[in-house]
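pls read this stuff:
=====
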Amino acid sequence: MRRLSKTIIATAVTCGLVSVAHSAVLPDVQSNSPWFTDGKAAIDKQLNLAPKKKAKNVILFVGDGMGVSTITAARILAGQRQGDTGEENVLSFEKMPYSAQVKTYNTNQQTPDSAGTMTAMMTGVKTKAGVINIAPDTDRANCDTASGYELKTALEMAEEKGMSTGIISTARVTHATPAATYSKVPERNWESDDGLPEEAKAAGCKDIAAQLVELEAGDGIDVVMGGGRRHFIPETTTDSEGKSGKRTDGRDLTNEWLERYNDQAAFYVEDQSSFSGLDLANTDKLLALFNSSHMEYNTDRLKDVGGEPTVAEMTEGALEVLKKNDNGYFLMVESGRIDHGHHAGNAYRALDDTIAFANAIQYAMDNTDPEETLIIVTADHSHVFTIAGYPQRGNPILGVVKSTDGNGQPKADPSLAADGMPYTTVGYANGLGFADYGDGNGGDQRYGDDAHAGRADLTSIDTTHSGFHQEALVPLGSETHAGEDITVHAVGPGAHLLQGVIEQNVIFHVINQAAELGGVAYQ
């Protein structure tokens, strides 16, 4: 872990790494952090590679858990759904002109979590796993040590600059990735006050949902869409799904949101039909919480009473509201359930949500001006998800392996492992392992059953449907993140700064440079 010291700070200032763009708007613990100054130095090297042009708008797409193997498998699956062999297919964001590899480790872990990784992208400072927008010189879940180490986010800087802001997530909007756009907590699980220890309350810590509604930067977030309704309503209240809230303080934050913006065209909705009925061109503020917890997987979303919009539909709606601001906007869109599909060992849902995410990115690319909008697509971390064996080209990516013969011709029968049983192309290094719930089922249902270690006979099983969960080598209660690099793809002003192999915190500096969030560019 890197720790702040007077020597490091003095060296950074002497070398001119601390830009005046930040001195007036960021706390010293942030702008003087070696993570911050190193990230700025990395941007300085790239500044003359292309003509300088300011980005009026920034859209950051984060596929939670969308590692390279996930992108590859989703690319193939999408192509196969179109009737092609799949390997030659290209997802929307893979057409972007600039890309880089991103190192994802947290300051205390080789394999990271989403709180630390998203903090790096939103503040320019890497931190510990489980900690949101607090510098690493603190203890997790300790409000006393967190005081004075709070970091300002790109969203807050955009608000202070007069830009419109929005967050979208298919997970709870209080979950780690979206929460890192606006909140500052030493424990990612403090989503509402029911999870906040008494000593934390006494020390002045606030839960994540309350911080969202009370955000002081600018006039607060303009558009919030996703799941997590339970963290905004009292435990004595039931929502449109008949599910109780979690707040023990009696606060209804949805009402507080509306009261805060009672002088504007502000709306709160809970289902797709209400969302579809809004006049977004005349909407100033929008809070849309489509599920008590996480939103449904894309495969399952139409089963809900009232339904839920796709991530593409939410992106379209957000842009309709945000684009009215002449000062521009900052929008973060997370596909959170890619991560959850992998944790459950259900490749079908993880890949299907990745394809839906690529569709949302395509909408943004088609409906924004590339001369004034920087679009960045990345992940927070990867998963222990593998593509293996020697399947023939065009073999169903979710199917069992069928290889080629000695003459390179496709075999009709599945390849067999040394144990005499067929095996799938995709699988997991750890997790809950094999399960088959039948088409239309599966997903999080897997957590209710015991882990299945090792191999299963797949001879008579359809491995390509949504209820199939892949085998895992090491039995665990949940499949884990992976520690390898992920990718970032970009188009628009400042996109050229994303090249080579970079630290994850550099992404903040690209956004800051391109949109001049600190008031001026680095150079």
